[in-house]
Amino acid sequence: MNSLDKGHAEKGRPETIKAVPVRHPGRWAGAVVIAVLGAMLLSALFTNPAFKWDIVGKYLFHDSIVHGMLVTLELTALAMIMGVVGGIILAVMRLSRNPLLSGTAWIYIWVFRGTPVLVQLVFWNFLGLIWAKLSIGVPWGPEFWSESTNVLIPTFVAALLGLGLNEAAYMAEIVRGGIQSVDEGQAEASHALGMSQFTTMRRVILPQAMRVIIPPTGNETISMLKTTSLVSVISLEEIFRAGQIIYSRNYQNIPILIVVSLWYLAFTSVLTIGQYYIERHYARGSNRTLPPTPLQRLRGLFAGKRTPKTQHDVVPGIEGGGHV
Length: 324
Fold this sequence. Notes:
Distance between the termini: 82 Å
Largest sheet: 2 strands, antiparallel
Strand order of the largest sheet: 1-2
Oligomer: single chain
Mean pLDDT: 84
Low-confidence stretches: 312-321
Shape: flat
Radius of gyration: 28 Å
């Protein structure tokens, strides 16, 4: 008998395979628990009179709240611009072969990351106690111009300096990590093609490092939006301070805090969506298939099609950092 003979095949169609779906009792139990907890939460939100939703609706677009909201957005945008620009400069200085530049950047990052941003805000607000006036002139010599420190640094500027300079220290480490994630051969090849150090950084290194820099920068922006509430300690009327002033007059603490929280959630949601699409844009350099947009995910869900995940799927809204 031939050793390769495996026997005779059965004639006719094979029997239908009876596939038994995998059961997930734990998953169903968890879903029931979450559904019950969600129902309890909704019931508490709509039946507990302490929430006073009518007061929430009344103050949601109150003039003071809207003004505080604009101050919060302005402070967040300016502080992040200062932080990103300062962070790039500090990161380049930190990576410099010049020990003076590298050491200066290290000391800056050490000081501003090592002290709480709340302390820095109060420090900038009371800078006039250290130097009553700021001047331009010859060191230890005559002054050409001077002005009172409190005039040059009002409350808003003090808040901006406290938040922006602190953010620059964090952004410096984020940018440094992104630059170092690019292979050294990229810079060597650029220099071999005759590019200068500045051109190599601008056209070769930074575009590739952006894929690493963008996600933590998005997290820093969302964190900065919430960190602006700390400027209430120096009496700058942003949205949280505006809420404090209102509920100190009408004693409606919980409804006003809900109003403030709703605005923070709205801003955070917009920033999270923006971060998602920016990450998706820069993912083109590493993914063959771009991650689906939320709209594409919804279409796939209603069409009964599972959306395939890419190797480097974008996960929006991952919180990190925090400057308190």
